User: Fold Uma2 family endonuclease from Microcystis aeruginosa G11-04.
Amino acid sequence: MVTVPLELNTSEIRAERRVTFYHLNWLSYQQILQALGENNRAHLFYDRGTLEITMPLEEHEFYRELIGLFIRILVVELGLKIKSMGSTTLAREDLERGAEPDNAYYIQNQAKVLGKRINLTEDPPPDLVVEVDITHTDINKLALYARLGVPELWRFNGQIWRIYRLDKGVYQEGEFSPTFPLVPKTKLYEFLATAKEDEVRAEKNLRAWLVSQLAK
Assistant:
């Protein structure tokens, strides 16, 4: 049983390609977003003049997909509701900040945004955002998402899963997810390690564990 962070030689990984631009105003950022369109694979992050464009590669997408599946299983087995946002652009012109996360979810606030096209000047931010960053990023994503008001942020670097809870405008790292307090960190590590060999078995094992915990 795997109960420790995954071992990974990140120097050999082709996980993301990144390019960063500086001194770009909000209008330029919006023009680039429009030029790339909604269906492009790149993720754009903008923070007061700095624009980072990230192109996720195979390793990045592997973890992104599986962490998304992990969350979906938790939601289903725990009887929760969810609105998935994927990499939808989360932008606030008044804050001069924008992000396209790997995944974003409304869970606690699902009912408030059901059937709506999200506008962050009127609607709450997603309850949970997931970022996979295996290679270095020039954007301070903790500060970015804190300013956007995201209550919970997960970050995974290919080895370590970090959980952050927003407290008075600042993220505090914790050992348990506020959204899924039943689930220890070891379960994600086990899930990912098993999924490298057999994704179906990883899903079955996680569902079985959740059922056993809920039956206690």
Observations:
- The longest helix spans residues 58-77.
- The helical segments are 26-36, 58-77, 110-113, 141-148, 185-195, 199-214.
- The radius of gyration is 17 Å.
